[in-house]
Amino acid sequence: MIRRLLLASATVASLALTAAPAHAIVGGSNAPAGAYPSIVEVKLAKSFLCTGTLVAPDWILTAGHCGSVTGSAVATPIAFPGPLIDVYIGGTTPGAGETVPVTRAIIPPDYLLTQGHDVTLLQLARPSAQAPTKVAGAADAGAWAPGTVGTIAGWGATSEGGDTPETLQHAQVPITGDDYCAGAYSAFDAETMVCAGYPEGGIDTCQGDSGGPLYGTTATGERRVVGATSFGEGCARPGKPGVYARVADTELRTWIASVAPAAVG
Ligand code: ARG
After folding, report:
1. Which SMART domains match (predicted)?
2. What CATH number does the domain containing 34 carry?
3. Separation of 4 CA from ligand 1 center, angstroms?
4. Is residue 204 in contact with ligand 1, taking CB distance under 6 Å?
5. Where are the extended beta strands (E) located within the chain?
């Protein structure tokens, strides 16, 4: 009897393993409807896909390399004109979120290449009806301390070089120390970047997730944005964590608050 039980549970365990990531961010799962009202699908010129977060009723945070027409080509970015940016807020299937016209994209003057300062703020023509998630404030550094588990969510590829999902994906990843990330990436800058991922890889953001949130939880249990998906070598590779714009630390938080005061706190 005990042997049968053991066999049965071994079978269940191996089924669970083989059945695991049919969907993902990479290594993630389908987000339940309504779980992330602040997640935004961002389409640039009807073709490039990014993710973003509604951080105030009329402001979306996304990546610098998502808002810049000139991409990584030049140091002084030229922002996409608002009419070329389509946003779908709070949906869990592609194109199903709330649509609101974008007035303009604002890129920090210090944005260089796709490395530091990899953020853009999209101003909406009117407030969204969805509930925003703010960027964590100065008192909330514990929400993204190394070892803390954060939540990633996005519309990006579910495997390196793979397709984008039919349902919004989410997953959890631990925030790494800065030394570990500096060892993984020579471009790492501890003022404007923070990394997250398991040493063995397997769970990560990927192409199309850029600009989307790394969410943390404050001491009082509130969800806040602590990172915006930026880059990585491949996706979910061992020893290569995802790199996120360090939006809740001084450098980027101060810039975000100067443009959109309601987006922080
Ligand atoms: N730059 C990518 C984008 O445009 C995001 C890559 C994230 N990569 C990673 N391994 N975490 O969507």
Report:
1. Tryp_SPc
2. 2.40.10.10
3. 45
4. yes
5. 29-30, 39-44, 48-56, 59-62, 85-89, 98-99, 102-106, 120-124, 149-154, 169-174, 193-196, 213-217, 223-231, 242-245
Per-residue pLDDT of 51-101, as tens digits, reads 999 999 999 999 998 888 765 555 556 788 899 999 999 999 999 999 999
Total number of domains constituting the chain? 1
Nearest to 99 by CA among 113, 114, 116, 87: 87
Ligand 1 center from residue 34 Cα (angstroms) = 24
DSSP 178-225: HHHHHHH-TT--TTTEEEE--TT---B--TT-TT-EEEEE-TTS-EEE
- Residues with active-site annotation: 65, 118, 210
Tens of pLDDT, residue by residue over 225-264, are 999 999 999 999 999 999 999 999 999 999 999 999 999 9
Token readout for 258 is: 């100067």
| Domain ranges, residue 68 | 1-265
pLDDT-based confidence at residue 110 (cuts at 50, 70, 90): confident
Q: How far, in Å, from the CA of 205 to the mean position of ligand 1?
A: 6
Atom of ligand 1 minimally distant from the CA of 160 = 10
For residue 17, the one-letter residue type is: L
